[in-house]
Amino acid sequence: MISPSFLYRSVLDLRADGLVIELPLSHGNNVAGALDEQRARRTGCDRLVTSVGVGGSESFLGVDRNPLFRSALDDCARAAAACSNCDLVAAMFAADDDILEDPAVGQPVSFALQVALLALWRSWGIEPVAAMGHSLGEYAAAYAGGVFSLEDAMHAVCARGQAVQLCAGQGAMAAISAPEHVTLAAVARIGEMEIAAHNSPEDLVV
């Protein structure tokens, strides 16, 4: 999803040898036409591979068929076992996926998926030059960038999931499309809430 607060979005044009081109949002969904207009604009390198860490989400169909991918999952499972009671691999491939709704389980599982994908990329010779993440994905991005060892990263992720588990049902979040000063005034008027995140100048979470 692209926030209306952003004036540009980046598009990877695979037809043009992997050029990354900034497109004004005024082009709407006419990406092909915009690329034709701006094909010559380069970012200073011919190819840019970026590793993106995602927030809480799960999609695991068939991912364990690659031996290297599965080996990376097993490494994550051992790291998780040292700091939680979660059987990470069993949870990932359980017939009943309701267990993944528990953040103390689902968050380490989601992190492990991203770690295994990174290992698979690297086995193909694809090394990200940058890493960025959203929410839980920040931990995966930090691991990709060498900030954490796998064990330290998984320890932090498990602690995060356990903390979220303890808070479950005790509050709520709402996405607000308004400038910060408007949101602050509303928060002050309503009380018992505060701004939790700034996703863009006019996209906030309370």
Number of strands: 7
Write the H/E string, N to C.
EEHEHHHEHHEHEE
Strand content range: 5-15%
Main sheet strand line-up: 5-7-6
Would you tell me the structural class of the helices and strands? alpha+beta
Averaged pLDDT: 75
Walk me through what this model shows.
By secondary structure, the chain is an alpha+beta fold. The protein contains 7 helices and 7 strands; from the N terminus they run ββαβαααβααβαββ. Strands 5-7-6 form a 3-stranded antiparallel sheet, with no helix packed on it. Strands 1-2 form a two-stranded antiparallel sheet. Helix 2 (67-81) runs antiparallel to helix 4 (103-123) and helix 5 (137-144) runs antiparallel to helix 6 (150-167). The two termini are 19 Å apart.
What's the short version?
This protein has 206 residues and is an alpha+beta fold. The protein has seven helices and seven strands, in the order ββαβαααβααβαββ.
